[in-house]
Amino acid sequence: MRQRYSRLGSIVISVFILGFVILQLGIGHAQTTQVVYKIPVKQSVEQGLRAFLERAFVEAKEHGADLIVLEIDTPGGEVGAASDIGGLIRSQQTPVVAYVVNEAFSAGTYIALNSDKIIMSPGSAIGAAAPIDLAGNMAGEKLLAAWSKKMTSAAQINNRDPVVAEAMVNPQIVIPGLTKRGEILALDAAQAEQVGYSEGTAKTVAEAIELVGYGQAKVFSVEPTAGEKVARFVTNPFIIPLLLTIGIVGIVIEILTPGFGVPGILGATSLTLYFFGHYIAGYADLLHIILFVFGLLLLVIEMFVPSFGVLGILGIIAVISGVVMAAYDTTLGFVSLGIACIVAVVVGFLLIKFFGHRGVWNKFILKDQQKNEEGYVSHHDWSNLVGAEGEAITTLRPSGTAEINEQLIDVVSEGGYIERGKRVRVLKVEGTRVVVRQVD
To answer: Where is the NfeD1b N-terminal domain (predicted)?
Structure first.
């Protein structure tokens, strides 16, 4: 019996030991499972993208990511946004790999260069990073030099040839076999790998992850929210002037025409998108929105309650302050608002010229006419009326209108009050001043 219990005890102990070993193996396996976060960097580079990446990096950190992969497919974008994103990438303790899906031009090149490694897909390209202005022209020497320095510094961070980065910005840099003078350098996948601007080529992001040693990792994806998508659209430097123009022109049309219709809805929607997008991106706050709305109200009040321009000036200052303070770039804010105001003035002028008889302007336009057939005449020499008699058409207090010799004439009494319908006689004429006295 004792031997049976001894054998049973041994079995129980063995089971516990085996379970403990299996548990430890499972825990060890869970601890060694790698985590990769995949984040898209697509379309134009703007401040809305920076806000999205900021959130995505925080999420990756909170979930213990071992690697972050940026799926880049962008034609470029705003230099300031790219600079901010580059700083954001450099601040990450987690390794960051840039996977170029199709193209990483201009600002996209800078984002890739700040990453620890670059993997390219077959047929993709990187480079062509010369800065251009909103008109599509090459930027001035000052901006060109500053951007060139940023590009070369980003290349040097990960031991890449800075001359190649400079050739992507400056058309005067010549690299034998790659570019001639006057050309901006862009590299395909093979060329990028040849000059050390790519650690390899992969057909898919999964292959890219495997190429850098995380083939067995669990992959998570981060996608922008609906609000972040709106913010990305709104903070595009080409969209900002358009939104402000539609917004201000829509409000101007609504003020100048009766009722509240499509222009007002479009205007309000555009301005809402402008402020909402910049709010999501982290630039606008409630104060900026209140300033703008308050400014518009002051401008409307100025139209109906003359204040010698005080309310109008305060309204203009408030509108400008609200728009510019909400913008991520002060210069862009001023330029965009200037464009919108110029278009609004032109539209307002055309509306007043062709539709001035309608809407609110109907209250400000003098439409009464003094026609000759109604007895009104222009300035005349009334000296021949001295001694003539007539009838007071209006009460003279002391000025008014009298009918003399079948003509309506502005007259003034000798000083007394003359009721309407009384007979009057012209005493004297002093220029255009006709003095009359009541006939007893």
So the answer is: 35-220
Read off the pLDDT of residues 151-199 as tens digits, 9 standing for 90 and up.
Answer: 999 999 989 999 999 999 988 888 888 888 888 899 999 999 999 999 9
Task: Please name the residue that has the structure tokens 């497919």.
Answer: 73
**Which residues is 40 bridged to in the sheet?**
71
* Spatial CA neighbour of 250 closest among 214, 282, 274, 221: 274
For the chain, give every domain's residue range: 1-31, 33-224, 228-363, 372-438
pLDDT at residue number 25 = 47
CB 422 within 8 A of CB 402: no
Phi, psi (5° rounding) for residue 57? -65, -40
Quote the CA–CA distance of 281 and 84 in Å, as a whole number: 13
* CATH code of the domain occupying 33-224: 3.90.226.10
Task: Copy the structure tokens of residue 181.
Answer: 């003078």
Q: Give the integer Cα–Cα distance in Å for 60 and 239.
A: 30
SS (H, E, C) the chain: CHHHHHHHHHHHHHHHHHHHHHHHHHHHHHHHCCEEEEEEEECCECHHHHHHHHHHHHHHHHCCCCEEEEEEEECCECHHHHHHHHHHHHCCCCCEEEEEEEEEECHHHHHHHCCCEEEECCCCEEECCCCECCCCCECCHHHHHHHHHHHHHHHHHCCCCHHHHHHCCCCCCCECCCECCCCCCEEEHHHHHHCCCCCCECCCHHHHHHHCCCCCCEEEECCCCHHHHHHHHHCCCCHHHHHHHHHHHHHHHHHHCCCCCHHHHHHHHHHHHHHHHHHHCCCCCHHHHHHHHHHHHHHHHHHHCCCCCHHHHHHHHHHHHHHHHHCCCHHHHHHHHHHHHHHHHHHHHHHHHHHCCCHHHHHCCCCCCCCHHHCCCCCCCCHHHCCCEEEECCCECCEEEEEECCEEEEEEECCCCECCCCEEEEEEEECCEEEEEECC
The verdict on whether omega for the bond into residue 398 sits within 30 degrees of 0, i.e. cis, is: yes
Average pLDDT, the chain: 81
Tell me: the pLDDT tens digits for 331-342? Answer: 777 788 888 888
Q: Tell me the sheet residues that pair with 221.
A: 38
pTM for this entry: 0.65
What token pair was written down for 274?
Answer: 């402008």
Does the 372-438 domain belong in CATH 2.40.50.140?
A: yes
**Amino acid, single-letter form, for residue 414:** E
Is the Cβ–Cβ distance between 244 and 236 less than 8 Å?
A: no
First to last CA, the chain: 153
Contact predicate 76/106, CB 8 Å: yes
